[in-house]
Amino acid sequence: MRRKVVGLVGWLALSLAVPVVLVSASAFAAAPPPTLTLAVDASEAPRGILHARLTVPATAGPLTLVYPKWLPGEHGPTGPVIDLVGLTLTAAGKPVPWFRDTLDMYAFHCTVPAGAQAIEAKYDFLLPAGGQFSSGVSSTQQLVLMSWNQVVLYPRGLASDGVQVAATLRLPEGWRFGTALPVQGESMGTVRFATTTLTTLVDSPVLAGAWFRSVRLNPGLSPPVFLDMAADSREALEISLERQAALQHLVAEAGALFGSRHYRDYHFLLTLSDHTAHFGLEHHESSDDRVHERMLIDNEMWLYHTNLLPHEYVHSWNGKHRRPAGLATPDHQQPMRGELLWVYEGLTQYLGFVLGARSGVRDLATARDALAYAAAQQELHRGREWRPLLDTAVAAQILYGASDAWESWRRGTDFYNEGILLWLEADALIRRASGSARSLDDFCRRFHGGEGGGPVVKPYTYDDVIATMGEIAQQDWRRFFDEHLEATGPHAPLAGIEACGWRLGWADTLSAFEKSIESCGKLTDMQYSIGLVLTDEARIVDVIPGSAAARAGLSPGMKLLAVNGRRYTPKVLRAAVKAGKGASQMLELLAEHADYFRTCRLDYHDGEKYPLLERLAGRPDLLAAILAPAAGGGTTK
User: Fold this and answer.
1) Does pTM surpass 0.90?
2) Where are the beta strands (DSSP E) in 8-48?
3) What average pLDDT does range 145-150 have in this prediction?
């Protein structure tokens, strides 16, 4: 029986109404907020090391310095403190002993000696060799993406908005850079930034490199938007006029969608390298976008990455300006609560999908193929039978680091792609209820728009989302979202696709979009047919529960050696699956697992299957209307 009170999501959001009270244990009681001085030397970034010197004003007594732990956009306690090394503290030139907190690995205790006016810290940061986000690989011989949270300590108990930082950055000779941080001056290879809050500093990474280029995406308009690129080669920076125009349209379409902008200027910080981690991380006035080196000049790689820049740009409004109350913490040590990530990330994934098509970053056919792919992924995630969508948001801090093995049964950060399905259905409901007079665009303008200007954070709760949706269309939105978030079952929510005049179908050949996923991701994706995803080295990444592969005993970690007695290649496997359609013979796979070999016989006879969207006869194509340009000048061929 349905509850007659607020749903679980509402209860969680309401529980955030009482703010966290910070109690300072530092030597700053009753003192004005300090201004830290931070000097970072990145001249050895090509070797994978940063050098930092920090001065913290202080008075005599106990002082605790903390390293940022919970980072906006990373949705977890991911601060890479393991790579902070060589820490020494001094006061007036004399050593000051320190010790790490026995429970909080991110806190360092010391005692400021009598008569001292500051603590000076010296340390290095080892640029990571693995991981993701600010723990991911961020430097090569030719470039570095420096996140300030990697190299800063600050007094515990102070809100990050209340700590001022005067920062400088020394770069390798001849390197140029891009950042949203205001620059006061440059001298002898050192950049001096305007003093700013710790919040803004951590939110404003710097991209620098020997091969660097900056392109204005809205010439003559304000506030300015830049595409700042650093690459491992000169040729990787050669973006075509057509793709540059698509990104210009993206800026215009976002303005039409939200109605205002909440940044002084905006910088896409695009790292083009095959040797760094690949991901996107949002910031209020910039985004950290790391892609393959040839992304701008290779059609397949461009196709593979077409969701990245639209998604991260949307975050300036949804996630940075409007932020769930549980993620709007006063400093970088307080735990975050992610139960509204289906709005923060899910709505962003949907709006990135929409703006990508409206701007021409993707054409309509690719947008449809991407939607089919997202829907098929969710349909195959058997983990939805036990884990509701809400729990993927609540548990995001542990799911981001989960293995790809058994992902279908575990379920991962599904609030991204299922967010597309959820918000598409909501959009379709609004359009149907209003006779197409209103849409989710109206919600975005009302919820995320308002007065423009510099960065301002406006936290929200679940009730705020429900209330604003109700202002756009009369609908029981609480019931709608509760049911989507709390339900378990075998099938993905595909009602939104069908309401738009389409349905999830299956083809026997890969689309161009799926080919780009396989090529750039170095995968062979047979999950929709026999139930396997493999690396380019024939290693099984995942097995779909209930599939022919699962019934035959195959598991992640195994390596395929042969198909029907012939040495395995992706081409041989696909040919065998295709030839087995309608036949009676089993598909025989020879697999290696550690020191053991196993012959597995798959009872599968339906041929190759890959997702696509099929038109529903007699229904209008609402999807085309949703993806049509709103600002003019876009292309949705």
Assistant:
1) yes
2) 35-41
3) 98
